[in-house]
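Exercise 7.
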Amino acid sequence: MAVKEEVRMFTKIITSIPKLPSRQNSIEKFSMYMTVENNKGYSTIKWKTEPQMHCNIELYKSRHYKFASLVNQDDNGRGLVQFWIDMAFNDRPQKEDWEPEKRVQKAWEYLTAYCEESCYRAAVTVWKDDTSKSWEEYIFLSRCFIYETTKFRQILAKYNSNDSSLDTYVTGVLIKNIKDSVAKFSKWRLLHKKSDKELKEALARSGRYEPEISRFLIARKYFKQIYQMNKIQNPAKITGQKWQEPDSVDFAESANYYNAQILLPCASHEVAVGGNITGEQLKTSMEICIAALQNYPKSITPRFSLEALKETGRQVESNQSLEIFEQDFLTSEEVEDSRENQGIIEKRTEPALQEQLLYLKIEQKEIILLYYGFGLNQKQIANRFKVTQGAIAHRLKTIEIKLLKTLYGLSKPPEWVSQYVAVWLNRNYQAPIYSDLIHVALVEAIKKLEPQEQELLRLTYGQKLNEQEIATQLGIALPEIMNILRKTKAKLEAALINSIDTMINKYLQVWLTKRTKSVFQSACEKLGMIRDKITEIPTINTVLEEVLKNWDS
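Solution. The predicted structure, written as tokens, is:
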């Protein structure tokens, strides 16, 4: 009985379509879209609010008298439908100052959101008559007609509000169009045609993260090549069946290509650390990609990434900014002790360098100001001091080394690099953060390791095998495995320290240029001179004297 019950429940799951919950009010009908979620084999459909659309509608409700009255009207949204149709087709009523610039485009977005229920009802109707395809595919097809601008415009152009509600009309049109296009639709065509950018966004919106997304993209790349040769361009294929179902051979060959490529230097870090895959695993990956594209196809659903919002003309503000040097070369968020000291170090950097500049000799100050602030080359400065160019180069180096020692004393890489590398390998090896310069430095350092060292890191931190399991798999004695891992970590630590040295050098060059140009500009403004027009030596000397006079401030 238990087995029969399980079979009955399973049959129920695969032969039923989830119920569509109701949107509670008129505002929700024009600002929410469907999402399909899967949990333990059960699919559910939920409504998700698009915040910008919701805010815009609230704006109309509070500032547009006619719109506000339509919101409160008990007509199942028909008045609001006509309001947005008039705006979409005729740009009426007359635009007021507070309305969004692209209000016509937004009117189409509201109508699209409203017709989401029609997509569902049309899919259910077609699926009940023809279960050769899943209900998800039918919903996908129906949304294609709604989110493709030209097709949706053609559908609404023939709508007559006196004959029926928009929901009833659009549902009927979608049912006919779905039935007409079923024969032309293939999920393998969808997978084959979508760009990497679209697939990446679809996967991200379906809850996938790095490094998994990068691996899916690479797997799709090699599957497309095999599918193209074996199915699309195969002369033995059945006429009229371009997008045939791939078989186990196609997936196995694709997996072989994938496995052969991941060890190449050009392979991305996320893919290289993931290890080999089987044909069955690649098939599962492709099915996940297809599901993501069907549920959230970028071309037919509301677009809510920052990039997409900008493309539609919406204003997107970000409070995030990258302080490239001061936040990245001195410390890292991943090490607890370093995180606590980060703010202290950043606050100490500026005054520490300023203090060192104050202690320079007059001649050293002049060299720094002329070289970094005014932009003279070493030969021009040498002529001024009546010495060789080599002498000026040596003096510049002496000053820079003094300042670099100050920065190095603040950052103290040897004190935290070892701990940082250990934490990074455990937390970020599989998915480094490329906005963090230290993460980037470690990824580059890993690419320069010996193949055996890279393999040990991949097995240890990518596949999470313990040292004994690795020793057994590779046929190497456990002590040797431990020794290689220890040396590999030491190599990464040394490489990171070298990279930090380079970052500190770059930071100092930027800081000196910014600081000295600033004081030169201030002096020029005080003297009533234009910086870019100062070319004569006497004039340069006048400005230099003014700068030195106020150097301590």
